[in-house]
Each structure stands twice: as structure tokens, then as C-alpha cells.
UniProtKB/TrEMBL annotation:
Keywords: Repeat, TPR repeat. This is Tetratricopeptide repeat protein. Residues 9-129 form the Response regulatory domain. It comes from the Bacteria. TPR repeats lie at residues 233-266.
Length: 529
């Protein structure tokens, strides 16, 4: 069946004008009329937000210190603007392409290489387009977010098109991971690997094992991917996670640093490295990682004010705090306000940290002025926002001229926040915790967290109660520790206040020790069988 290109919308992402023009000319001769171009990942993301494309040609190497072509797929996926019906063709040398297909859900659909030739481009496109035509019912369900229906469609398509079984199994595995069907996903990917080593299937198997808390097995699988020299950020990230879960932060940092050397422009990876380095007091690494995360997350879904505040926190923690570092910190706090205009919490946090910077520099008058600004901005916040930030607020005011006013403000906020549903649940949880009814306390904290997710204080309360409950006899120990590890992993350590950081490290170390003890027992049992 002849494929018509006249109705296809194509996006080409390439910063080499001559090559771009050549590919555009070839596509034009094939009948493609609607062709748009972008010279960077960020520019391409802008276009993808506005319009659906049938085919995206993306150059892998877009230049030093620039996001590469794989990151377009990664960031479009994270932002929710990647459509499964769109064909992503990575432009890369054939030798290197074999190293780039270890990613599970961010791999391209196909690849082409330079120099371009119409027969080669046509052959690659028609091959994948015929597959996409068959997969159209599945792609439509995935684009609509109907995961359960998509699983049923996978079964149907496998029966109708057995030759595409491996392709469909990959999609099925991705869906299972997204739905939390980790045991089924691990079994599926394991069966694929047993028949033939596929890097993406090994990564999927490692991810599923991690989600189930089987860190040692996950480590073996993911290490194999890296040993085979596959250029896969997910393998490094999830392998590092197995080391971090067992309290081996140094090894986790080493793995993440290697990953950054391979892909130095991935914001999420850089943020994770910064957080772990800060936990290990490796301030130079943390400063560099957070600074790079800020730079490479601009205009993407990964942009986060946490990176800015974490950078300032790392600068404050360094032993040598000279005028240059002070200026760097203040400039970063000014930049975050510009990056997130009209966000009162960001403005408040910026001035709060400015007070800490000036105090660290010995400029008490400036610190008092910044603290007063922060106090006034705090007063203008909504009650929920005040209740969220009251502890860091009071901590940041210590040693300034408004410390007494801040203490009085805290009392007012604590009293008023009891009227908030999540605040009421948090108080009930703390009362139960003091009575050592950890199970009941945990239920209250979980309910509070569902109303106000991603609040560090609530998350730390939840983890503390869960760890105490995990110490008690019962069948929930493994599940509770896994939930604690996931909750702690989701917190950016650098953005916490100093007291929160101290509490985080204590809980993280306790969690890692308990997981390690459980793993050691399991390993000993297996060795004796």
C-alpha cells in the first residue's frame, strides 16, 4: 500500500542549516508540504506545545552544552505533550545509534543517519509508518490516557500481529510501570531478557525491581546495561537509586556524576546529583550540579524554584564564603524571582534566604532589612501558604531584628491553621504519634499529604511515623520501608531549611539501615536454602 505524505506535518530539529535544508528538500520531493524547523530542544518544545506533528526528525548532537535530541523526547514525555502517534526519528551515526536505545520510554521510534538520501529516508519512514498504522488503536488509547483499555488492546494486537510481539510487549511494560503493576512488569521484562538481551527491557526490569524494593536484583540487572556501554541515563539513575536506598550515597554520587558526563544537560539528573551531593556535604559538586540544573531547565517542565534555593543553600554551607560567593547567592535569589514572576511564595523565600546570606556575610543591617521584607511578604500569603512555610520562616528570622515578631506570627498561624483540613489532620497525627499510636498517626499524615502533597514537613512527619510502625512486628515492614524510601527520594534536600535537612538525614539514615538489615536477612535466608 502506497503511503501518502501530502497530509503529514513534519518537524525537523537541527542546528546545521545546510543539512536541515537538504532533509527539507528530500521530504518536499516525497510530497510533504507542511514542514517546520527548530534549532534547539527548547524551540522544538514550544512548537510541540502548539501543534501536533506526524513525524519529528531530531538531531542527536545539537552542540556542546546544548540539550541533545533524546532530551526532546524525554522532556516532551515529562511535560505530557508527546503523542504516541507521532514518529520520532533520531538523526545519529549508525555506530552510535546502538548505544542510544537503552531507554525504555524515551527512545526514538527509528533513526536515520547523514548524509541523507531519499531512498534511505523513504525506507526508514515507510517501515515505521506501517507499524504505526497497525498500532493506531493502541496509540489513540495511550494519547487519551486510557491505560487499562490500552492493556487490553495490547493483548488483541499481539494475537492479530504476532510479528510485532516484541514491540507490543515493550508498550505493555511501559503501561504496567505507569499503572503500578510492578510485579507483572518485572515478569514481562524478565521473560523478554531471558529470550534475548534487550537493553530497554533490562532497564524496565531494573525499574520494576526497584519499585518492589528488590534493590540487589535491580543492581545486577542495571549494572549489566552499563557494562554493555549503553548510553542510557535511566540505567545510571536507577542504579544510583539502589545504592542510595541502602545508604551508600558516595557510590550513588559517583554513578550520577558518570551519567552527567555522558549527558550533561539533563535537569532532573543534575538536580538529583545536587541533592545527593548536598546530603554528603560535597558542596562543590552540589553547587555545580544545581547551577547546571537551573541553566538547562529553563523553558522546560523541569524548571523549578527548588534548584535556585538549593544552589544558595549549598553556597551558604561552603567553608569559604567570600564576596564573590555572596554576590553569586544574591544574584541567584534575584534570578528566581524573575524566573517565577507573580509567585508570592517565591518572592517571600527569596527575601528570607537573602537575610541568611547577609547574616553569613556579616552584613547585619542588610540582613535585618531583608528579614523585614520577608516578614511583610509572609504576612501577605494565604493561610495555607503561611502554614506550609511557618517553620522555615521562623528559622530564617533567627538572629534578626524581627525574630520576636516572627515568633508571635508563628503562634497566630499555628492557631489559625487548625481550621484547615490538612492542618487538623496533621495535628491529630502528631497527637497520635506522641501517644505512640504510630499506625493511627500514619493514617492521619497520609490523609493530610493527599490534601497538601509535596510539603516537606508533612512528608517528614509521614516518614517518621511509618519508620516507627515498620519497627513493630507485622507484615507491612517491607512495604512501609519502600514507601519511606520513595517519599524521601522525592524531596529535594537542598531546598529544605537547615533543621529540615538535619531531620531528613536522620530519617534517611534510619530508613537505609532498616532496608539494609532486611536485605541482609533475605540474602542470608536465600544462601541457606
Amino acid at each position: 500500500m502506497e503511503i501518502s505524505y501530502s497530509d503529514k506535518k513534519v518537524l525537523i530539529v537541527d542546528n546545521r542549516l545546510e543539512d536541515l535544508a537538504e532533509l527539507k528538500m528530500i521530504l518536499g520531493s516525497m510530497g510533504v508540504a507542511d514542514i517546520q524547523v527548530a534549532s534547539s530542544v527548547n524551540m522544538a518544545l514550544v512548537l510541540l506545545r502548539e501543534k501536533h506533528y506526524d513525524i519529528c526528525f531530531v538531531l542527536f548532537d545539537l552542540g556542546k552544552d546544548h540539550k541533545n535530541g533524546l532530551q526532546l523526547i524525554q522532556e516532551a514525555t515529562a511535560e505530557g505533550i508527546r503523542q504516541f502517534s507521532t514518529i520520532y526519528s533520531l538523526i545519529v551515526d549508525p555506530e552510535r545509534s546502538k548505544l542510544l536505545f537503552g531507554s525504555l520510554d524515551s527512545s526514538p521510534d527509528t533513526y536515520i543517519s547523514k548524509p541523507y538520501a531519499e531512498p534511505k529516508v523513504r525506507f526508514r519512514l515507510e517501515k515505521i509508518m506501517r507499524v504505526k498504522q497497525v498500532m493506531q488503536p493502541l496509540d489513540e488509547l495511550l494519547d487519551q490516557g486510557q491505560r487499562q483499555e490500552a492493556l487490553l488492546m495490547c493483548d488483541k494486537l499481539t494475537q492479530s500481529y504476532p510479528a510485532l510481539r516484541l514491540y507490543i510487549q515493550r508498550m505493555r511494560g511501559i503501561i504496567l510501570l505507569e499503572k503500578g503493576g510492578y510485579a507483572d512488569a518485572e515478569q514481562l521484562f524478565g521473560a523478554i531478557v531471558a529470550q534475548r538481551v534487550q537493553p530497554w527491557a533490562q532497564v524496565g526490569q531494573g525499574m520494576a525491581l526497584c519499585h518492589q524494593g528488590d534493590y540487589l536484583s535491580a543492581r545486577q540487572v542495571l549494572q549489566q546495561v552499563i557494562d554493555d556501554s549503553h548510553f542510557c541515563v535511566e540505567a545510571y539513575t536507577w542504579l544510583a537509586r539502589t545504592y542510595r536506598a541502602l545508604g551508600e550515597r558516595g557510590d550513588a554520587i559517583s554513578l550520577l556524576r558518570k551519567a552527567v558526563m555522558l549527558q550533561p544537560t539533563v535537569p532532573e539528573l543534575l538536580g538529583t546529583l545536587g541533592s545527593l551531593a548536598a546530603q554528603n556535604q560535597e558542596w562543590n559538586v552540589a553547587v555545580e550540579a544545581y547551577g547546571s540544573a537551573i541553566r538547562h531547565s529553563r523553558q522546560s517542565s523541569f524548571q523549578s524554584d527548588d534548584y535556585y534555593f538549593s544552589l544558595v543553600s549549598a553556597l551558604l554551607a561552603r567553608d569559604n564564603f567570600d564576596r564573590g560567593i555572596e554576590e553569586h547567592a544574591i544574584r541567584t535569589l534575584e534570578d528566581v524571582v524573575l524566573a517565577f514572576p507573580g509567585e508570592p511564595v517565591v518572592q517571600f523565600k527569596s527575601r528570607l534566604m537573602a537575610a541568611q546570606v547577609y547574616r553569613r556575610a556579616g552584613a547585619q543591617e542588610r540582613a535585618n532589612f531583608a528579614a523585614r521584607n520577608a516578614f511583610d511578604l509572609f504576612c501577605e500569603l494565604e493561610l495555607t501558604e503561611k502554614a506550609e512555610w511557618v517553620e522555615p520562616f521562623l528559622e530564617g528570622m533567627e538572629g534578626t531584628s524581627v525574630e520576636t515578631d516572627a515568633q508571635a506570627m508563628k503562634q497566630h498561624v499555628n492557631r489559625d491553621s487548625s481550621a484547615l483540613e490538612w492542618g487538623k489532620l496533621n495535628i491529630q497525627g502528631m497527637l497520635c504519634y506522641r501517644k505512640k499510636d504510630y499506625q493511627k498517626a500514619l493514617r492521619f499524615f497520609v490523609r493530610a499529604d493527599s490534601i497538601l502533597p509535596n510539603n516537606p514537613s508533612l512528608t517528614l512527619n509521614l516518614v517518621q511515623a511509618a519508620l516507627e510502625q515498620a519497627r513493630r512486628p507485622g507484615g507491612e515492614r517491607a512495604e512501609l520501608l519502600l514507601q519511606c524510601d520513595n517519599a524521601l527520594y522525592g524531596i529535594n534536600y537542598g531546598a529544605l531549611s537547615l533543621r529540615q535537612q538535619k531531620r531528613y538525614l536522620s530519617l534517611s539514615d534510619r530508613c537505609a539501615d532498616m532496608i539494609k538489615a532486611m536485605v541482609d536477612v533475605k540474602r542470608e535466608v536465600e544462601e541457606n536454602i
